[in-house]
Design goal:
Blueprint lengths: L2 E5 L8 H7 L10 H19 L6 E7 L39 E3 L4 E10 L5 E3 L2 H4 E4 L5 E5 L15 E7 L10 H16 L17 H4 L10
Antiparallel strand pairs: 1-2, 2-8, 3-7, 4-5, 4-8, 6-7
Helix pairs in contact: 2-4
């Protein structure tokens, strides 16, 4: 499912002053504000990629060629589970992994809101689904998932590329303090490393470079294992 960042975060989880304090610079001679901001953004992107999350509120868009359907996996036809529909039929079919085949998983939790779901119908007309009445949005699961509302199925789309468009906002919140402390501490540690080792090749005349064992373990509580 191709995704694109529509609206990047308005802030970073780490401020310039916090980063400058951590690397023990006054931010007036050796390291300019622009360089600090670039390091913060680069490390934040690395941290989001490592955890598969979004930190500060941002907006994303995904496209599909068609809606997912259980018929895409015929081996699931004998698996049954909780009723997503009203009678035995498409939405009660369960796959061995406990999914129905109707789910659309949205990356970069935490999900804040689904803002758009549109599709091109069989006549070539763009239709906008009502998020409140036409969809079941599960923001508790991570990653979040959306399904057709109870007793319904996904509509039929025209056979064309990118017939379905989904937009959503995600992230922990609008302020740096909303981001878990473990992520911000990991970012500070790696900003310090980026500052101390600013070249692609490092020549060591003595000693070795060692990574404290706790650094990467900081991200364990917030890693998204299913994507």
């Amino acid at each position: 499912m191709p995704v694109v960042n529509v609206t990047p975060p308005a802030k970073e989880p780490i401020t310039v002053d916090q980063a400058a304090w951590h690397i023990r610079e006054d931010n007036d001679e050796l390291l300019t504000t622009d360089k600090i901001e670039m390091a913060i953004q680069a490390v934040r992107e690395m941290c989001e990629n490592a955890t598969r999350r979004a930190f500060i509120t941002q907006k994303w868009r995904a496209v599909l060629d068609e809606f997912p359907r259980p018929s895409m996996n015929l081996s699931s036809s004998t698996w049954y589970g909780p009723q997503w529909g009203t009678v035995p039929g498409p939405l009660v079919i369960m796959r061995p992994d406990g999914t129905t085949g109707y789910e659309i998983y949205l990356p970069f939790p935490r999900l804040q809101a689904v803002t758009l779901l549109s599709y091109v119908d069989v006549n070539g007309v763009v239709q906008n689904m009502n998020v409140s009445t036409d969809l079941l949005v599960d923001s508790v699961s991570e990653p979040a998932r959306i399904l057709p509302a109870y007793g319904t199925v996904w509509p039929t789309t025209r056979e064309q590329a990118n017939a379905v468009i989904i937009e959503w906002t995600c992230g922990y919140g609008d302020d740096p303090e909303d981001v878990p402390a473990c992520a911000r501490q990991w970012m500070l540690a790696n900003i310090g490393t980026c500052y101390e080792l600013r070249e692609s090749n490092v020549i060591m005349t003595r000693g070795t470079i060692q990574v404290p064992p706790y650094i990467d373990r900081l991200l364990d509580p917030i890693r998204v294992v299913r994507y």
